[in-house]
């Protein structure tokens, strides 16, 4: 019976195609753009001199050129991430683990926090068997750092789509879990009349959803890692502003934000 | 089955785990992979007791993409039920344009619970949906118990644990139920979007026809977009009807407008003519 129905479909299908041509065009285009991005930009790039930024903007784009010069006073190099909506988590994950390569004391402290994070999620009602693969990937990466691999090896793991995406899923879960645990506080920052839970289901847990202040604060606090973000946009003033999450902390990770995208910075 | 698959593949690892988790039928749902394919499952769900589907047990297929759980499963009902079309992918969460999409921490169980929770909601002409009368649905519910699946061999009469008087009417733990509610809640709002987009050249949220076409040409091909995807045929009757309707309306309104404009011009000329005299 199922086969019979399938044979009917192509005719009816052809009739409906025109009305849906719009969708097809849009989705095909999005698909193409994503593929182009995927082939031209690695998930996490090699470390590059900060001057590469200058080439991304026109020479007479004074606002950006001036701000890049300002940025160069504080930072020497940049590691780019693929602009796929997950860049904050990937940039954060990589630069934090990279910093742990040289700090075994901090590594052990972080390992304990990371192990605890799953228990917290499970006690909040997240289903254990669906989150444990993501958690295991996270723990495996931390364990691997304990063996003092080269930065190249770590970079290799982060450019392995399945490992890299699983890490992003887990960091999203940690962010969501923290936001929901601290619901009373974060409720005031959720836009659009949504509950924190709805916000997490719509803006935090699904892949490719971009991150804002609220995500960064939550992840920084959940994992107890201080993050400094340099904001570079078209605003006047010639200098780059920064925020430290959580405020008053001693930042270990430096990210560059340009509207819609995060990369990692190095002093 | 173990030897056939690469156990390092995240999808295989995860599906093995889900198969173990869902091994024993519950009172409300059961799902297991086919013997020869870990990426195709068959499931049975009990119609919600407080609805027209009371007494029904419905059977269907779940097709998992190779990227699972990063990409969503597709669900296809095989038992006539009056709510979802038979043999068509069900649309629960529409597309990547829409804010509510599949989450990798959801599971096959979440999808099953969503199906159960979704049955009593209105189809409202949505893709893959049917709006049969309560009588028809009740008749189908009764009949559904006679269904035996040729592929997986399960018979609906014995597929699930029998309901006992003290059974919980709610199929699941609160967490899963909450997730299920979220999916169905979203579906309804996304349906509205899909409908409006078919009326105007705004950014559309409907699933891609290419996707549907490719799914029809090759059932095994995995869906590329966040789905629980829709079926093609299901959408056409209402759409064609509304298109003919709106075309007729547009022609009539244009004619009426033209008539008014001509009348106005005619009157204006007459007036001017009088004035000059």
UniProtKB/TrEMBL annotation, chain A:
GO terms assigned for molecular function: cysteine-type deubiquitinase activity; ubiquitin binding
EC number from the UniProt entry: 3.4.19.12
GO cellular component, one term: nucleus
Sites marked Interacts with free ubiquitin: 217, 231, 233, 257, 262
Domain OTU: 76-267
Principal subcellular localisation of the protein: cytoplasm
Keyword Metal-binding among record annotations: no
Reactions mediated catalytically: Thiol-dependent hydrolysis of ester, thioester, amide, peptide and isopeptide bonds formed by the C-terminal Gly of ubiquitin (a 76-residue protein attached to proteins as an intracellular targeting signal)
Keywords, ordered alphabetically: Acetylation, Adaptive immunity, Cytoplasm, DNA damage, DNA repair, Hydrolase, Immunity, Phosphoprotein, Protease, Thiol protease, Ubl conjugation pathway
Gene Ontology biological process terms, A to Z: adaptive immune response; DNA repair; negative regulation of double-strand break repair; protein K48-linked deubiquitination; proteolysis
Subcellular location field: Cytoplasm
Residue numbers annotated as active site: 84, 87 (nucleophile), 261
PROSITE patterns given in the database record: OTU (PS50802)
Family (UniProt): Belongs to the peptidase C65 family.
Protein name as annotated: Ubiquitin thioesterase
Biological source species: Anabarilius grahami
Lineage: Eukaryota, Metazoa, Chordata, Craniata, Vertebrata
TrEMBL record, chain B:
Low complexity: compositionally biased ranges: 214-224
Membrane topology: Single-pass type IV membrane protein
BP-aspect Gene Ontology terms: ERAD pathway
Start and end residues of each stretch annotated as Disordered: 190-241
Top-level lineage group: Eukaryota
Gene Ontology annotations for the cellular component aspect, listed alphabetically: endoplasmic reticulum membrane
InterPro entries given in the database record: Ub_conjugating_enzyme, UBC, UBQ-conjugating_enzyme/RWD
Annotated function: Catalyzes the covalent attachment of ubiquitin to other proteins. Functions in the selective degradation of misfolded membrane proteins from the endoplasmic reticulum (ERAD) and is essential for cells to recover from ER stress. Plays a role in MAPKAPK2-dependent translational control of TNF-alpha synthesis. Also acts as a platform for perinuclear positioning of the endosomal system by mediating ubiquitination of SQSTM1 through interaction with the E3 ubiquitin-protein ligase RNF26. Plays a role in male fecundity through the interaction with the E3 ubiquitin-protein ligase RNF133.
Location of the UBC core domain: 10-160
The protein, known as: Ubiquitin-conjugating enzyme E2 J1
Membrane spanning stretches: 244-262
Assembly information from the UniProt record: Component of the HRD1 complex, which comprises at least SYNV1/HRD1, DERL1/2, FAM8A1, HERPUD1/HERP, OS9, SEL1L and UBE2J1. Interacts with E3 ligase RNF26. Interacts with E3 ligase RNF133.
């Amino acid at each position: 019976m199922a086969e019979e129905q399938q044979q009917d479909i192509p005719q009816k299908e052809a009739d409906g195609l025109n009305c849906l041509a719009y969708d097809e065009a849009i989705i095909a285009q999005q698909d193409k753009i994503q593929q182009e991005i995927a082939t031209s930009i690695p998930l996490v790039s090699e470390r590059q001199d900060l001057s590469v930024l200058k080439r991304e903007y026109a020479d007479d784009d004074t606002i950006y050129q001036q701000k890049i010069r300002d940025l160069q006073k504080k930072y020497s190099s940049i590691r780019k991430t693929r602009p796929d909506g997950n860049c904050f988590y990937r940039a954060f994950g990589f630069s934090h683990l990279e910093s742990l390569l040289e700090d075994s004391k901090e590594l052990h402290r972080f390992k304990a926090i990371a192990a605890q994070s799953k228990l917290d999620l499970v006690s909040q009602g997240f289903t254990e068997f669906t989150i444990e693969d993501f958690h295991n990937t996270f723990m495996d990466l931390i364990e691997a750092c304990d063996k003092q691999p080269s930065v190249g090896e770590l970079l290799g793991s982060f450019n392995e789509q399945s490992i890299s995406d699983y890490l992003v899923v887990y960091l999203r879960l940690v962010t969501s879990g923290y936001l929901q645990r601290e619901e009373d506080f974060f409720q005031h920052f959720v836009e659009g009349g949504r509950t924190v839970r709805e916000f997490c289901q719509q803006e935090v847990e699904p892949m490719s959803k971009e991150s804002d202040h609220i995500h960064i604060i939550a992840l920084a606090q959940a994992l107890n890692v201080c993050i400094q973000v340099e904001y570079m946009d078209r605003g006047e003033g010639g200098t780059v502003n920064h925020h430290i999450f959580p405020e008053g902390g001693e930042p270990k990770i430096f990210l560059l934000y340009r509207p819609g995208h995060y990369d990692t910075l190095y002093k | 089955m173990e030897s056939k698959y690469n156990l390092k593949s995240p999808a295989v690892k995860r599906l093995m785990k889900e198969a173990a988790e869902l091994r024993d039928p519950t009172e409300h749902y059961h799902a297991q992979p086919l013997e020869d394919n870990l990426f195709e499952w068959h499931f049975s769900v009990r119609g919600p007791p407080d609805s027209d589907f009371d007494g029904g047990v419905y059977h269907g297929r779940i097709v998992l993409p190779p990227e699972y759980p990063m990409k969503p499963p597709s669900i296809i009902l095989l038992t006539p039920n009056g709510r979802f079309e038979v043999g068509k992918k069900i649309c629960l969460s529409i597309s990547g344009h829409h804010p509510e999409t599949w989450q990798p921490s959801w599971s096959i169980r979440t999808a099953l619970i969503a199906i159960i929770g979704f049955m009593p909601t209105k189809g409202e002409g949505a893709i893959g949906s049917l709006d049969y009368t309560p009588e028809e649905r009740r008749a189908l519910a009764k009949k559904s118990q006679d269904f035996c699946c040729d592929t997986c061999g399960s018979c609906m009469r014995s597929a699930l644990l029998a309901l006992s008087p003290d059974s919980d009417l709610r199929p699941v733990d609160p967490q899963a139920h909450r997730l299920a509610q979220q999916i169905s809640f979203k579906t309804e709002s996304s349906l509205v979007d899909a409908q409006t987009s078919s009326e105007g050249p705004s950014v559309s949220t409907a699933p891609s026809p290419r996707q549907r076409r490719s799914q029809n040409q090759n059932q095994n091909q995995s869906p590329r977009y966040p789905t629980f995807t829709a079926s093609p045929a299901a959408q056409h009757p209402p759409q064609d009807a509304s298109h003919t309707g709106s075309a007729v309306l547009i022609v009539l309104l244009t004619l009426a407008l033209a008539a008014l404009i001509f009348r106005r011009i005619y009157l204006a000329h007459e007036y001017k003519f009088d004035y000059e005299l």
